[in-house]
Design goal:
disordered N terminus
């Protein structure tokens, strides 16, 4: 079964922007919520759930992220992210494969969007959105109104929390639930990857260090 069917975690959120007049007051932001500056860098470590202890053990997989350039596309400025992954010789499910990948992102009034127009994150819209429609059900995303304190090896951060979850073909909620935590002026701090059928996430990725200019 394809990864998108098994997991709530996808790299690009393919849905349209919307707004809600009854939504909570948007999170207070600095001028650069997603820390989009050339030269900014983040290092993440990946941890896998141990089914015997229920602890999350270090997999040895490391994602090193760096904004390496700025590109202009259709008169809009995008930041080029390079993610270099090491330590995944065993091809652990939900961890990035070894090697490099690149992504172009920009901040569009609180929406972190790719050069193809898909939404990766949103920090000021609390409406539920459809991410993908599958034969077995539908995957959704929704920003939680309250900030969450997240502690990682890189420090403690007040984060916005975007939940990703699914409902089956009968519109019943499935057990799986993922979280994407972003901190104002820092960017991604913590995220999880889950099977739709499992109420405990399989992989969590934690910010280990970062340099913000």
């Amino acid at each position: 079964m394809k990864r998108i069917i098994l997991s709530l975690c996808i790299s690009a959120l393919l849905f349209s922007c919307s707004s809600d007049n009854d939504a909570p007051t948007p999170i207070t932001q600095v001028d650069n919520y997603y820390a989009l500056n050339e030269g900014n860098s983040w290092v993440y470590k990946n941890y896998k759930r141990n089914n015997q202890t229920q602890n999350y053990d270090d997999t040895g997989v490391v994602d090193s992220v760096l904004i390496i350039a700025i590109e202009e596309i259709n008169q809009k400025k995008y930041y080029k992210f390079r993610t270099r992954t090491t330590g995944n010789e065993n091809n652990i499910t939900y961890c990035n494969p070894n090697g490099e990948k690149f992504e172009l992102l920009r901040d569009s009034i609180g929406y972190l969007v790719t050069d193809s127009g898909s939404i990766k994150y949103v920090n000021n819209d609390y409406t539920e959105r459809t991410i993908s429609i599958n034969s077995w059900g539908v995957i959704y995303a929704k920003l939680v109104s309250n900030l969450v304190n997240i502690s990682t090896e890189s420090g403690a951060f007040n984060c916005s929390d975007m939940e990703v979850y699914a409902r089956d073909s009968n519109h019943l909620s499935t057990p799986g639930l993922d979280h994407y935590y972003y901190a104002d002026g820092v960017g991604l701090v913590f995220d999880t990857s889950s099977f739709v059928s499992d109420d405990k996430h399989m992989i969590e990725r934690r910010l280990d260090s970062h340099v913000i200019q």
